[in-house]
TrEMBL record:
Nucleotide-binding is among the record's keywords: no
Organism this protein belongs to: Tuber melanosporum (strain Mel28) (Perigord black truffle)
InterPro entries per UniProt: DML1/Misato (IPR049942), DML1/Misato_tubulin (IPR029209), Misato_II_tubulin-like (IPR019605), Tubulin/FtsZ_GTPase_sf (IPR036525)
UniProt lineage: Eukaryota, Fungi, Dikarya, Ascomycota, Pezizomycotina
GO cellular component: mitochondrion
CDD domains, per the entry: misato
UniProt name for this protein: (Perigord truffle) hypothetical protein
Domain Misato Segment II tubulin-like span(s) in chain numbering: 2-117
Keywords for this protein: Mitochondrion
Domain of life: Eukaryota
Residue ranges of domain DML1/Misato tubulin in the record: 123-306
Family indicated by similarity: Belongs to the misato family.
Function summary: Involved in the partitioning of the mitochondrial organelle and mitochondrial DNA (mtDNA) inheritance.
Location relative to the cell: Mitochondrion
Length: 520
């Protein structure tokens, strides 16, 4: 068994994490005559005993959010809740004059959650009803998975959790008081037979980036050989010039401190470029944007949680995946892209995809920033020669639909004919389940109906997800470096610039771009 522990740092990360766990929960099979799920649930779920003595499975995850960020979700849920006498209070004796208990108003669960609690068919989720990530959550968590940080309020205008130093200081304060790894992480780590790694979902452009950087440093100090895969969430929304500069500085600090200590860093953001016509979502809704990201994240990491015998090969462990992409030792930043294939109605059976569909990027390959006189835009990677170091691709279509161009070991279409890149493809007929907590963001012509699906979903998606290490990240790194050189104080500027420079050099190793268009 090779377990993975997940850290979810911040409200934005918890939206992504909720979609991830809902999908994992859908892979459980309950019918006696059902075929075993290809997914090994022990990788991401921990066995336990509930209050009624029954066996439970809860995610191996730690969920951090600010005060008010958990919505209607209870820390002690139905699996662990004990009936208490409502008249029982705090023992009297030393103080006999009575007590006044003040409680903050509770957030009422929405109809979707009430129907789940009563075991009824879930009510339809509407965009207006999703206020928090917990509103569409379908999973019971261990009570020690949820950690509310009461020092800051969610979306506070008075004391916003924005600057990187706030997250850094908060972690160090809590660590001095409790030892964060001892209090939170060690319980889950000690339950593992053979922990293969840690995956981290974190915001990267606000104070959570500082919190994550300190957390990764503590993990690396305690577990020096454990694989750590970090997904850094960014929100490419138009905002004020001042706030965007602040976000970029926060991101620079996050990269500077996390990348040297992590096995692989994948930036995640909603694409700035035009989405394919089959994607329809409200860019103002985190529920929608995180759902799009979750399909790609869950698909490209699928081999790390498959049972033995499913041939995941070199993509079957977090560290193996990171090593495959990091060809020369300096390529620790990978970009993510995805394609949702269209079923071909003329196929011998329903569900055959058209693999000529175009994909779209979900990280830096989709552009940079541009405003005012500050040069922050990457200006497009097409204007200079690029180099691809490695590509890993997970293709989720049926065996019947597999085409000649998908033979294991074949190279995909790489930019500028760089067919010397390391390439690994994993094919599985285990398509992506579209469950009731997932928003309707894809055209109906992309949905594959499945009758009698044992995983609990009656609709599926044929998906290809790709992680790539290439020199296309260099313009973005250089634009960040440019901002740091202009606005960061002397005390921290040199260290961050040196780190960013080393990251850029890592993507120059082993090839010659023949261009200095982006040199400072």
């Amino acid at each position: 068994m090779h377990e993975i522990i997940t850290l979810q740092l911040g409200h934005q990360a918890n939206y992504l994490g909720t979609h991830f766990w809902n999908t994992q929960e859908s892979y459980f099979t309950y019918a006696e005559d059902a075929s075993p799920s290809p997914v090994d649930h022990n990788v991401h779920f921990r066995p336990g005993i509930g209050v009624d003595g029954g066996e439970t499975f809860t995610p191996r995850t730690l969920i951090y959010d600010l005060k008010g960020g958990f919505g209607s979700m209870k820390k002690i849920n139905a699996l662990y809740e004990v009936e208490r006498d409502s008249d029982a209070g705090i023992p009297q004796g030393l103080w006999d004059n009575g007590m006044t208990i003040q409680r903050e108003p509770l957030v009422e669960p929405i109809e979707y959650q009430r129907s789940l609690d009563t075991g009824l068919l879930p009510a339809r989720l509407e965009p207006a009803s999703v206020r928090y990530w917990s509103d569409f959550n379908k999973v019971f968590y261990h009570p020690r998975s949820s950690i509310q940080l009461n020092q800051y309020d969610l979306n506070s205008k008075v004391m916003p959790f924005e600057n990187i130093s706030l997250g850094r200081d908060l972690f160090n304060q809590l660590n001095r008081e409790h030892d964060m790894l001892d209090r939170d992480f060690r319980l889950f780590a000690e339950e593992c037979d053979q922990m293969q790694g840690v995956q981290i979902f974190t915001s990267a452009e606000d104070a959570w980036g500082g919190f994550a950087a300190e957390y990764v440093a503590a993990l690396r100090d305690e577990y020096p050989k454990t694989g750590i895969m970090t997904w850094g969430l960014q929100d490419f929304e138009k905002t004020t010039r001042e706030r965007q500069i602040n976000h970029t500085v926060n991101l620079a600090y996050t990269l500077s401190n996390i990348i040297p200590l992590t096995s692989l860093y994948i930036p995640l953001g909603f694409p700035q470029s035009k989405l394919p016509g089959y994607v329809h979502l409200d860019t103002a809704l985190q529920w929608h944007k995180s759902a799009l990201l979750s399909v790609a994240v869950e698909s490209c990491t699928l081999p790390t949680r498959l049972r033995d015998g499913f041939g995941a090969g070199r993509l079957g462990k977090l560290d193996d995946l990171a090593s495959l992409l990091n060809v020369n030792g300096g390529q620790k930043i990978a970009t993510l892209s995805m394609t949702v294939h269209k079923p071909n109605p003329s196929a011998p059976r329903s569900g055959e995809p058209s693999l000529s569909d175009k994909g779209f990027g979900l990280s830096w390959d989709s552009g940079g920033y541009e405003f005012g006189g500050m040069a922050m835009r990457a200006r497009g990677v097409q204007s200079h020669e690029s180099h691809t170091f490695a590509v890993t691709e997970v293709v989720r279509v049926s065996n019947h639909d597999r085409t000649k161009d998908m033979t294991a070991g074949d190279s995909p279409e790489l930019p500028n004919d760089h067919h010397d890149a390391v390439f690994e493809r994993y094919h599985t007929s285990f398509t992506y389940p579209v469950i009731d907590s997932f928003p309707s963001i894809f055209s109906t012509d992309r949905i594959i109906p499945v009758e009698g699906d044992a995983t609990g979903g009656d609709q599926r998606l044929a998906v290809s997800a790709r992680l790539t290490t290439s020199s296309q990240v260099m313009p973005r790194l250089k634009s960040i470096k440019n901002v740091v050189s202009r606005v960061v104080g002397v005390d921290e500027r040199e260290a961050i610039l040196n780190d960013l420079g080393e990251f850029i050099e890592g993507f120059e190793t082993g090839w010659n771009s023949g261009s200095d268009d982006y040199d400072d």
